[in-house]
Model the fold of this input.
Amino acid sequence: MKHLFLLFVIIITFNCEKTKDIFFVRGSVQSKSFEKNEIIIAHDTIKGLMPPMIMPFSVRDTNDISKIDIGDSVHFQLVWDDKKPYATNFKIIGEGIVVENDQFFVDEYSEKLFNQRLDDVTLLDLDSNVTTLSESDGKIRFISFIFSRCPMPNMCPAIMMKNNALASNFSEVEFIVVSFDYKYDTPSRLFQVYGSVTEKVQNLKVWSSVGHVDDIYKLTRQSGGNFWGVEKAKIGHTISSVLIGKEREVLGTFKGENWTIPQASNVIKLHLKK
Done:
């Protein structure tokens, strides 16, 4: 009877342990740190997890750091541990690419790469109060760009919907949606369109760029996006969203409009667990 009880306890304990998801990843080593026990990798799409980006991966075995060099193309496994995901089983498969800024062409409007800091900018909140990006330093932030007259439901409206869903799930992160239509999207106009949403979700902000043309150009371009045609009311744009850290350092960039809520959630979770 005692043996049966012990077997029952073992079975219960085993079944209660949560299975860890394992993802197979390919990428190029950008840098590594023994002090932080991490390797920064420019990775391809991680199927079922996140889009391509440059980001740090924690490692538990320092031998993994020792056996690879900057510039190596590697295959490895990402173990999705609820406490702290980590990378393991590295295999060098060839020579990769180290992403570098060409300093000759870099200016204040150039896209910021991983770990580079966004400049501070001044814009307007929905109450027409001046607000700055630095006011929220100390928080992780997710920044996206829209304009209220956007005719494509799969673009700006979808971006707003995804930010709303993410903000509802991550109260410790501030979500900032900025309009680059500095001619039409006044604070009162944006409040009319989005005020009912931001009043319900306290960590979701919508900002206007009216009167702050240089700031919105700088923020959009540094975040990996672009826009044009505002003066002629024929707006074109390339969409990009960016996750930044407590000191405005870039943690991840989401190019285009096709990123998903689960993809963004996974990247945010990864940085919240650090």
Notes: Residues 2-17 have pLDDT under 50 and may be disordered.
